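Justification of computing resources. Each target in the renewal requires a structure prediction run like the one illustrated here; the chain below, 153 residues long, is used simply to show the kind of job we budget for.
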Amino acid sequence: MVAAAITMTQDRRARAERRYGATSPFSRFAWQGRRGGSRRGQDTTNSYVDLYEARWFYVAVAVLLLSCTDAMLTLNLLHLGAYEVNPFMAWLLSINANLFFFTKLVLTAGGVVVLVAYKNFRLFNCLKAGHVLYAVLVGYALLIKYELMLLSA
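Resulting structure tokens:
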């Protein structure tokens, strides 16, 4: 009986570790999860979550709204004689203003989704992706303020 228990324990330990890698937030299993934080207290970085706090939704929506505001203000400034500094966006503007607006929104939304999904991951071993999203929000707010100053001048 003791030999059978030892054999079962050895067999169970000999299996490959099933939790070797993290589940990607884009996996079909991520939509069924209940993980709102890391499993252990010390695992606060480089971990995915399944449930996000409401603040991430608010920050993401704010960034997208500011991006749309930036696009509209850019179009107004271009109408008044300004020019687009970004060569890719200038090329899109030369084709169609709607294409410019849609592409700007899609690129921003894609970046926001990635930053929220990887919010606990450290970039360059110093800054969490969630903090980068806050920096993008502040950057857009400052850009909107600058564009409003240009429009009022």
